[in-house]
Amino acid sequence: MPGFEIFSDEERKQVNDVLETGVLFRYGFDQARNGQWKAKTFEKEFAERIGVKYCHLCSSGTAALTIALAACGIGADDEVIVPPFTFIATVEALLNAGAVPVFSEIDETLCLDPYALENVITPRTRAVLPVHMCGSMAKIESIKAFCDNKGLVLMEDACQSVGASYKGKALGTFGKMGCFSFDPVKTITCGEGGAVITDIENLYRIAEAFSDHGHDHIGDDRGMEGHPIIGANYRISELNAAVGVAQLRKLDSILKKQRAHKQALKEALSCCTKISFREIPDPEGDSATFLSFFLPDEHLARKAAGLLAKEGVDGCFYWYDNNWHYIRQWDHLKNLSFAAKPPIMLSDNCPDYSKVSLPRSDDIMGRNISMLIKLSWREQEIDLRGQKMVRVLNSL
Ligand SMILES: Cc1ncc(COP(=O)(O)O)c(C=O)c1O
Q1: Mutate to test the pocket of ligand 1, among 58, 60, 62 (most ligand atoms within 8 A of CB)
Q2: Ligand 1 lined by 231 (C-beta under 6 Å)
Q3: CA separation for the pair 102, 104 (Å, rounded)
Q4: Contact, 258 vs 376, CB < 8 A?
Q5: Is the distance from CB of 316 to CB of 308 less than 8 angstroms?
Q6: pLDDT value of position 5
Q7: Quick one: pLDDT at residue 318?
Q8: DSSP one-letter string for 326-391
Q9: What does residue 156 show for φ and ψ, rounded to 5 degrees?
């Protein structure tokens, strides 16, 4: 995901503004900073862009998840339903909060299947944490209806889907809190960064205090601030926030280009009868960072991924064999390999993750290939890529 493909004078100017003041800290130093508040500027503009009341910018998407869990009051022994196709960060945030990740099946949206949630709910379930993977969305309305009906907290991991929406409403705004990542390979980047968003003032207040050692940020003397809670340090620096401000202002042009590139490739592949495309509940809201498609079976998908790589069609991920995004390859989770004893090991509710069975997700991921969409492609490159892909996929 491509924010870094388009660094230019805008990013340099924003970073220089900060360097000229010498104030890299996001709070205080009111006089020295000469009116430059990059983190605050990002928060204001992002909240407006997403259509939400509050945004708190923090040090990473993983931090955003950790902060949101704390703000929503999810901690020791609380079960949280998550998809098995995500980045391990979603699971790590839960484990580090002392919560218990419970995996539920995905559907052909590549996200949590709302109709499978009933199978894993228990009296300990506190929340559902859908992940809007690869730029597109879960069936979020149905997931929200399930949560409302069962009295569960809905929190969204939209780290891979900034700028995407469902029926005109931004992903991340359906639950109590939404989380975003602006790491170096996201649609827009701060270098490292993340954000939590919410419409609920109290959650926002807890989030911003938790991410800065519990400081309440009231008054102008940091040493005299109150500390309503114990927190941690998940602060963003002004330098990272400055890069983010420039990138955020390019978000709409990035989305426009991505969507055009994806559409051109989708049209090129329309003659490939062996593939079907990922289900997208609202195609207009797709942020188009990936083109994901299915082969008829695991054997053909693995073969197609190999042939595409051999033909020089880069960026085609076969997640089923890849260590990154699917539970099948997460031996560290299955073996509970931690640096030090985690809270979950003290729980009498500690699942055996090596025995998690998700046949439907295995089938879907076994047949899936996701190709990333680049901003820097030229028309000719897109044509050539399409031709190569058609050749490979029609030869299977
Ligand atoms: C779905 C998902 N959640 C969370 C994260 C964590 O974000 P970060 O790398 O900013 O910590 C990522 C990053 O890749 C992600 O893809």
Answers
A1: 62
A2: no
A3: 7
A4: no
A5: yes
A6: 79
A7: 97
A8: BGGG-HHHHTT--SS--GGGG-TT---GGG---HHHHHHHHHEEEEE--SS--HHHHHHHHHHHHH
A9: -110, 135
Tokens for 253? 């042009």
The rounded distance, in Å, linking the Cα atoms of 132 and 146 is 17
Cβ(161) to ligand 1 under 6 A? no
pLDDT confidence of residue 1: 65
**Which pTM does this prediction carry?**
0.97
Nearest to 132 by CA among 274, 1, 264, 275: 1
Residue 303 bears catalytic tag: no
Question: Does the C-beta of 160 come closer than 6 Å to ligand 1?
Answer: yes
Q: Point out the residues of the chain with pLDDT beneath 70.
A: 1, 3
Tokens standing for residue 256: 């426009």
pLDDT in tens, 161-208: 999 999 999 999 999 999 999 999 999 999 999 999 999 999 999 999
Q: 91 Cβ partners below 8 Å, 6+ apart?
A: 82, 101, 330, 333
Q: Read off the amino acid at residue 110.
A: L
Q: Is the CB of 66 under 6 A from ligand 1?
A: no
Q: 65 C-alpha to center of ligand 1: Å?
A: 9
C-alpha to C-alpha distances, 100 to 90, 293, 336, 348, nearest whole angstrom: 12, 32, 12, 11
